[in-house]
Each structure stands twice: as structure tokens, then as C-alpha cells.
């Protein structure tokens, strides 16, 4: 007979309790966005897979405050197959220690998954960001297990088409551009209802003035 | 002085089979009176009833699929030198006899804390390299060599006990000199003890001074100078694979043997290797070679093996491999890492980087750095992972109004009535930022950067080239 510790299940959100909305503080990483923390019950899940679905690789700014967090940035920040060049001065201006970045580029889909799994489970990373192609559910499960093993958040940037596919990720978000920033919709959140949404005010974060035309 | 003798009875065979995990029935033959006679045979051949001393046709009659190799003494000699290079970690004073190494271990015993503490790793690593040895320890090199050949595992620590240890060994064992052997046979002396019991002047007069001198050296009554061997400073060793290997996984076995040998060499020289050069020889095509880099100098064969495995998984062999070679051209002074100085986390971080780079290639795993320049294309560069910024780069232009994503190249945008298009008309935010600089290095730009909104709601970083005209997309905010 397997003995399960009930408190532990409650703490890391595996056991869903109807009224409770927040995870224990040591199982989340504050996102740096007040509205998002509220939406996610305290912040990003810590040792888990997070999916961000969007048209055209959106959603990186949501993570920039996390990457600047001192606890996270003490280790490698691994970016696997990013779609564009991470612009170092702009990242530095947002408090990110650029020398902690590890860019894995010019790799096949298979290699990027291998690298993602190795990075997640190594215990050497503060966060792993991955821009994969199509993924099988079994591959997602491997990544989720690796994230748990290495106590590291793994963030997957995927196409909205993936929404119909089942996923073991602890959190799935759909993001869309909104006039003030990014609209974030929760598709799935371990231990909570889906369908909540908010707008993260990126506009104030990146600066900018009034529209000219 | 205490001498450790390592005798390799199977060396003629082992130089051929040590590259393969499983070899079929194999014999090594020697010319004996114009005919070929089995000199050594492996276990698979013994299973057919083949024994040393058998004539080759008889052996072939017992096993039709028998592999036959002619004995190659030059190769045995080479192997013995490679073994000496490895053994240099246990003793700085090494000399040779046929199929035998002599190591002066009096000083090493204190260092290692006793004979058994020295012998355990020594015999284990010999096995890992594919050699079997008989050993003996004695205060004189002649006695140690004699005992290793004829009475292995004897340990004589005191000079007075040599006599007792060798007393009933045949006198003929003492020398390979045929003249002396004939003489011994003619005068009817059986054992070493018989000769030692005779009065020495009588013995010398009746036989030759050579025999008497041998006996004196055996007991340590006369100096026995041995030429001291100087180890080379570079490591390069080859294992022939006894046939062809088509799967890279079969390379792991001989590769590990080479790595154990290398790490022995490195310990002997107090160094660590940072880059291993591997050469795989093919029969007709040019050799395949690749390097294996490590972040820190290492002499841990298990660590090297792990990297090797990952590297060869993605290796495409153009043809079967017949020979594998490991070379290390430069090695660095090595300090054993103490756990109090380095925390475990640094090791974990290094291990990940090393694993990624060895599997994917160094150019695919990079770090990022800011540079002190106003031009977006020149304000960053790829670098070695973990490389800290230069002091001069602290003045790097940090702009919170710049986007986190940059396009590798500015992308020209179509323009309609002076308005840039990107999936429809772009709306520009007020107050462009002018970036205008670079006349000194030939990359001169004059641009007005705007934050622009696309129809789809994306926020883009676009510029108007003030010199050449035209609009370009250069970055993305979301």
C-alpha cells in the first residue's frame, strides 16, 4: 500500500480543493506582474512545465521579470531554438544578467528536445525556455518529469493549434496582443479552474508614447 | 629499495585482442624449426582443445574458423612502453625486461600506504586496459623478475629472505643466455639452491663468472644497475581492432582502455587533459577524427567516457573502423578539486554545459554579451557561455525602451504613401529615437526608430533609414 502525505499534495497543488486558489509560497515563483500573480495563484509554478500558446512566438515579456529574479538568475537561463535574436542590451536594461544566458541554436527538433530535457533535469538551470516544433504528448511528459526532477520551470512557446492536444503541463496559457499589452487566458492550471483571464500591461513596462497616426 | 615486477605472460596475445570485447578463437604462432607452433591461445581457442605448443596444422584441424596471428615482438615492445607510461604514476623509476616491467616502489609504498593499497588500483587498471599481469615484490630487481615469472604473488620484503624464496627454483630460470643454460645442464645443478650451497670460488672456477655474477645480483650482494627509463611528454596510443567495427557503440570498449591508459599517464605527470584527439582509421578512406573538449582539465576516465559516448552517438562512420587512436598534445598542470573550494553547484553547471556542447557542437551552444555601441547590430555579440562582460562594456547602452527581440537582419517593409506596411498599415507611436553613429568603422547609420502597432496588435520596432530612405522592421516587443 502506498502512503500518500495529504499535506504535501495540498501544498504543491496536486490535490484540488474547491475554494482554495493559491499555491504554497515555496512552490511558485512570483511573476513580477501583480495581475498575473493573482491570476495564477501566486506566480509561475516552480518545478513544472508551462505552455504559452500564441500566434508568432509571443509572450516572452511576461517572463522577463522572472528571468531578472535573483534566485532564478543564479543559474543558467537556457534558451533553446529562439525564433529571433535575444537583444542583449534590452534584456540587461530589464535587470537580466545576460552572462547567465545559454543559447542553443541551429539544432534539429529532436536535438532541441534532448537539450531541453537535459537542461531541465540537470539542476543547473534557473529557467529553460524552449521554442519547439510539434510535440507528442509523450515528449511533453518527459519534459514535465525533467522539470520536476531538476526543480526548474520549463516554458514552452507553442502555436495555438496545440490547445486541442492534451498536455501534462502544470499551466497552459493562451496569449494575444491587446491594446495595453498582452491578454492572458488560462487554458489549464493545476489545482484550479480554467478560463480566467487578465491583461498584462506590457505597455508601461517597455515604455512608449502616444500613437502618432 | 623494493622492486615490483609485473610480468605479462599473455602479452603476445593481448596486443591483438584487447580492442575487442569478444574475440573468436585466436592463436598467436611462432616459427619453431621451420614450422609454425602455437605460442599463445585465448580462452575461445582453448575451448576447442588448442594448447600452446601445438603445431598450427593440428590447431586448424581442431577449429576450422581459427584466427591466426604471427607473433609480433615489436608490437609487444610497444605495448610494454605504453604500460610503462601508465605505470609512471606508481613509480618514477622504471626499467624493462622482455614482457616484464620493473618498478621501484620503496618510496611509493609510503605514499600509497602499503603494498595492498598500491596493488589494488594497479591490478584493477591493468584489467581495464586489457592486460593480465603476474607480480612479485623483492629487494633486488633480478629476484623480483624471477619470482614474478615463476612464483607470482610472492612478496619478499627483506634481503635475507630472498635465498629462501628462490631456493628450489630451477637454476635455468635465472638466465636466457643459452651458453650458461647449457653449462648448467652439463654440471648437473638442478635448483638455484644447489648453486647457492656450493662454495662460491669453486663454482666460479668450474662454471663461468657470468653465473656467479647473476647469483650475486639475485641476492643483492652486487650492484645491479638498470637503465632508468624517461617517459615521453606526449600521449598518443593506438589500438588495432582485430577486424572491422561498423557500429560506433563498439568503439566505447577500446576507447575506455585508451582513456584509462591516458589517465594513468596524466597522473604520472601531475596533469590533466582538456582536449582529446580521436582518430578512427578506415581501410581505404581517410581517417575520421574529432576532438573532445572539456571545460576543465580532467583525468577521470569515467567522465571522459561519458562525453565520448555522447559524442559518438551522432557520429556518422563513412566506413568500418580498423584502428582507434587517442592523442593528447597538450596537458595542463592539474589540481585535484577539493570540495571545500568549489561548491557542488559549479560542477553541476559545468556538467550541463559540457554535455550540451559535446553532443550538439560548440558553435550551437553560445553565451551572449553586451557591447558598448549605440548601433543595435553592434550592441551585442555571441561569446563563450558564462563569459563575464569586459570592463569597457559596462558602459553598454542599456535601453529599457528597446525590444527584447531583434531580427538577425533589418527586414525591408513595403511602404504605401509614406506609411510602412506589415499585415496592413502600421501605426507609429510618437517621438522617434534617432540612432546616428558609426562613421569611424565604416558601418555608418542614420535611423529614426519608432514603436509601431500592427493590425494584429503586435508591437514592433521599426526604423526609417534617413540616408537611403525606406522602412525596416528590426525588433519585436511581444
How is this structure best described in words?
The complex is a heterodimer of chains A (213) and B (478). Chain A is built from seven helices and eleven strands. Chain A has helices at 6-11, 34-39, 60-68, 88-93, 109-122, 137-150, 202-206, and strands at residues 28-29, 44-45, 49-53, 76-80, 85-86, 101-104, 125-130, 154-158, 171-178, 181-189, 197-200. In chain A, the strands form two sheets. In chain A, strands 6-4-7-8-3-9-10-11 form an eight-stranded mixed sheet. The termini of chain A are far apart. The model of chain A is unreliable at 208-213 (pLDDT under 50). Chain B has 478 residues and is α+β, with helices and mostly antiparallel strands. In chain B, 32% of the residues lie in helices and 28% in strands. Chain B has helices spanning 11-17, 43-46, 56-62, 73-87, 106-112, 115-129, 141-150, 162-166, 178-187, 192-197, 200-206, 209-219, 252-269, 301-313, 344-360; strands spanning 3-7, 26-32, 35-41, 67-70, 94-97, 100-104, 134-138, 235-245, 271-282, 288-298, 321-328, 331-333, 365-370, 380-383, 405-416, 419-421, 427-428, 433-437, 445-453, 459-465, 471-476. In chain B, a hairpin with a 5-residue loop joins strand 20 and strand 21 (471-476). Strand 6 (101-104) of chain A pairs antiparallel with strand 13 of chain B, so a sheet runs across the interface.
Jot down its keywords:
heterodimer, A: about 210 residues, about 25% strand, globular, disordered C terminus, B: about 475 residues, alpha+beta, five-stranded antiparallel β-sheet, 21 strands, about 30% strand
Strands side by side in the biggest sheet of chain A: 6-4-7-8-3-9-10-11
Helix content of chain B: 25-40%
Q: What is the strand tally of chain A?
A: 11
Number of strands of chain B: 21
Radius of gyration of chain A: 17 Å
Strand content of chain B: 25-35%
In angstroms, what is the radius of gyration of chain B? 35 Å
Instruction: Compute the number of helices of chain B.
Output: 15
The termini of chain A sit apart by: 69 Å
Amino acid at each position: 500500500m502506498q502512503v500518500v502525505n495529504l499535506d504535501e499534495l495540498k501544498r504543491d497543488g496536486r490535490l484540488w480543493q474547491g475554494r482554495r486558489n493559491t499555491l504554497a509560497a515555496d512552490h511558485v515563483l512570483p511573476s513580477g506582474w501583480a495581475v498575473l500573480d493573482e491570476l495564477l495563484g501566486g506566480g509561475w509554478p516552480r518545478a513544472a512545465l508551462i505552455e504559452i500558446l500564441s500566434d508568432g512566438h509571443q509572450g516572452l515579456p511576461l517572463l522577463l521579470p522572472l528571468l531578472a529574479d535573483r534566485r532564478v538568475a543564479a543559474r543558467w537561463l537556457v534558451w533553446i531554438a529562439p525564433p529571433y535574436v535575444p537583444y542583449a542590451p534590452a534584456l540587461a536594461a530589464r535587470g537580466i544578467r545576460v552572462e547567465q544566458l545559454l543559447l542553443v541554436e541551429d539544432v534539429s527538433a529532436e536535438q532541441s528536445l534532448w537539450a531541453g530535457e537535459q537542461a531541465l533535469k540537470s539542476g543547473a538551470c534557473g529557467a529553460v525556455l524552449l521554442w519547439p516544433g510539434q510535440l507528442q504528448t509523450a515528449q511533453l511528459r518527459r519534459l514535465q518529469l525533467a522539470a520536476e526532477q531538476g526543480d526548474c520551470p520549463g516554458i514552452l512557446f507553442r502555436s495555438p493549434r496545440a490547445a486541442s492536444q492534451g498536455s501534462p503541463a502544470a499551466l497552459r496559457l493562451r496569449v494575444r496582443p491587446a491594446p495595453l499589452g498582452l491578454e492572458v487566458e488560462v487554458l489549464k492550471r493545476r489545482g484550479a479552474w480554467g478560463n480566467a483571464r487578465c491583461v498584462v500591461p506590457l505597455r508601461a513596462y517597455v515604455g512608449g508614447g502616444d500613437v502618432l497616426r | 629499495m623494493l622492486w615490483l615486477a609485473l610480468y605479462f605472460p599473455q602479452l603476445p596475445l593481448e596486443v591483438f585482442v584487447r580492442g575487442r570485447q569478444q574475440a573468436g578463437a585466436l592463436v598467436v604462432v611462432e616459427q619453431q624449426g621451420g614450422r609454425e607452433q602455437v605460442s599463445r591461445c585465448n580462452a575461445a581457442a582453448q575451448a576447442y582443445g588448442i594448447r600452446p605448443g601445438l603445431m598450427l596444422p593440428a590447431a586448424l584441424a581442431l577449429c576450422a574458423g581459427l584466427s591466426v596471428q604471427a607473433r609480433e615482438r615489436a608490437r609487444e615492445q610497444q605495448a610494454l612502453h605504453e604500460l610503462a607510461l601508465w605505470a609512471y604514476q606508481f613509480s618514477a623509476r622504471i626499467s624493462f625486461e622482455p614482457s616484464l616491467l620493473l618498478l621501484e616502489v620503496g618510496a611509493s609504498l609510503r605514499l600509497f600506504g602499503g603494498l595492498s593499497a598500491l596493488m589494488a588500483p594497479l591490478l584493477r587498471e591493468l584489467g581495464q586496459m586489457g592486460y593480465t599481469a603476474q607480480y612479485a615484490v623483492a629487494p633486488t630487481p633480478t629476484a623480483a623478475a624471477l619470482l614474478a615469472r615463476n612464483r607470482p604473488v610472492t612478496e619478499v620484503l627483506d634481503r635475507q629472505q630472498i635465498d629462501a624464496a628462490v631456493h628450489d627454483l630451477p637454476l635455468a630460470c635465472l638466465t636466457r643466455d643459452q651458453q650458461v643454460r647449457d653449462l648448467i645442464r652439463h654440471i648437473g645443478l638442478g635448483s638455484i639452491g644447489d648453486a647457492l650451497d656450493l662454495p662460491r670460488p669453486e663454482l666460479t672456477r668450474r662454471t663461468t663468472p657470468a653465473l656467479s655474477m647473476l647469483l650475486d645480483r639475485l641476492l643483492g650482494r652486487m650492484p645491479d644497475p638498470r637503465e632508468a627509463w624517461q617517459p615521453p611528454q606526449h600521449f598518443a596510443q593506438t589500438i588495432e581492432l582485430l577486424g572491422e567495427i561498423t557500429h560506433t557503440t563498439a568503439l566505447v570498449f577500446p576507447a575506455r582502455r585508451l582513456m584509462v591508459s591516458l589517465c594513468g599517464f596524466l597522473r604520472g605527470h601531475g596533469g590533466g587533459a582538456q582536449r582529446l584527439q580521436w582518430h578512427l582509421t578506415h581501410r581505404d578512406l581517410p581517417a575520421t577524427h574529432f576532438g573532445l573538449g572539456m571545460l576543465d582539465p580532467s583525468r577521470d576516465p569515467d567522465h571522459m567516457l561519458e562525453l565520448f559516448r555522447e559524442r559518438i552517438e551522432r557520429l556518422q562512420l563513412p566506413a568500418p573502423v580498423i584502428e582507434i587512436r587517442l592523442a593528447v598534445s597538450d596537458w595542463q598542470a592539474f589540481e585535484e578539486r577539493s570540495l571545500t573550494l568549489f561548491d557542488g553547484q559549479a560542477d553541476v553547471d559545468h556538467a550541463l554545459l559540457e554535455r550540451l556542447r559535446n553532443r550538439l557542437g560548440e558553435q550551437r551552444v553560445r553565451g551572449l554579451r553586451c557591447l558598448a555601441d549605440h548601433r543595435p547590430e553592434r550592441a551585442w555579440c555571441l561569446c563563450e557561455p558564462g563569459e563575464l562582460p569586459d570592463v569597457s562594456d559596462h558602459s553598454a547602452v542599456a535601453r529599457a525602451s528597446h525590444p527584447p527581440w531583434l531580427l538577425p537582419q533589418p527586414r525591408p517593409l513595403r511602404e504605401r504613401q509614406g506609411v510602412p506596411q506589415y499585415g496592413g498599415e502600421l501605426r507609429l507611436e510618437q517621438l522617434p529615437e534617432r540612432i546616428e553613429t558609426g562613421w569611424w568603422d565604416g558601418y555608418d547609420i542614420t535611423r529614426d526608430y519608432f514603436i509601431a502597432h500592427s493590425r494584429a496588435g503586435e508591437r514592433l520596432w521599426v526604423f526609417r533609414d534617413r540616408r537611403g530612405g525606406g522602412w525596416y522592421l528590426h525588433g519585436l516587443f511581444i
